[in-house]
Amino acid sequence: MLNENKILGLERLGQFIIEFFSKNDDNYNEKEERLAYLMTRSEIENPWFTQENQRFNLEQWASLFTKDNIENWLSKYPLSNSSKRVGLILAGNIPLVGFHDIISVVLSNHIPVIKLSSKDRLVLPFLLELWNEFSNNKIEYQIVEKLVNFDAVIATGSNNTARYLEYYFKDNLSIIRKNRTSVAVLKGDETDEELQLLADDIFRYYGLGCRNVTRILIPNDMKLDRLFENFINYKDIINHNKYANNYDYNRAIYLLNQDQFWDNNFVMLKEDEKLFSPLSVINFSRYETLKEVKQFVDTNKDEIQTVVAKPELGLESIGFGETQNPSLDTYADNIDTMAFLSVI
């Protein structure tokens, strides 16, 4: 059964975010001043969470929070009439990365028991407070230091952490997510605009998200200059201290090892078969036939979050510039969270 209060409250939360970014700080009300303060504190505590990236993230969420959009999403699932406690272990690699899990649990009529990431501990609880207030206090949730007393768990971590979590929660209903990344497949005739959108897929959130592209497959005859020319809008990324440290370190390692790489002073391209690349580096490989590409994608499907490509390549893919704009029914690791929650 749909909970009208929760849906309308989430829609109102989206409107609050939109109104917040339409104002300047001279016109903030008390709630808006609180959000501005928490965003500033978040960047101080975690320099990867810049104001720009936090704003982008919040505006993306707000654009999804309409009553029609939410109800269309929920209409695909039989929602529970019996509330269960669902433990959530959240990641902190990009802002609000665990928000979708929380929304899914609440709207499936369960109770989220939330273990926040230490890297993202400020804005998320505030958004939950607002959502609850806008929903006439109909949302039940807990923020905890340690998970106890739960019926199911959804956890996100590194591959090493996931092995521990799988063992620890082996007797519980669970979704345990591991490391994933995204890839792009170029046909060779992409426009400058498409390649500039690909830059968004690579550099947004400094490349820290599982939906960021870390590996590009290009035709044998494509020149790398076209990539560098269209990535130039992100040249200022090197001014971020933590990103620059990664760039300097990886460049020094490649020089020391006499590895071949291409450099434009803010990102490096390296011909490498590895799916994952270090921060500030993009791995690429060349292909002759689409059969090679499809074989590569199929072989690595358990580690690929999404593929960016033109539709005519015949891959299961999304368009350029869309990796960081997931819809409500886009699920991490391609595991349908709402389907899982509807049967616990």
UniProtKB/TrEMBL annotation:
Annotated GO MF terms: acyl-CoA dehydrogenase activity
Assigned keywords, A-Z: NADP
Listed GO biological process terms: bioluminescence
InterPro entries cross-referenced by the UniProt entry: Ald_DH/histidinol_DH (IPR016161), CoA_reduct_LuxC (IPR008670)
Protein name: Acyl-CoA reductase (LuxC)
Organism annotation: Epilithonimonas hominis
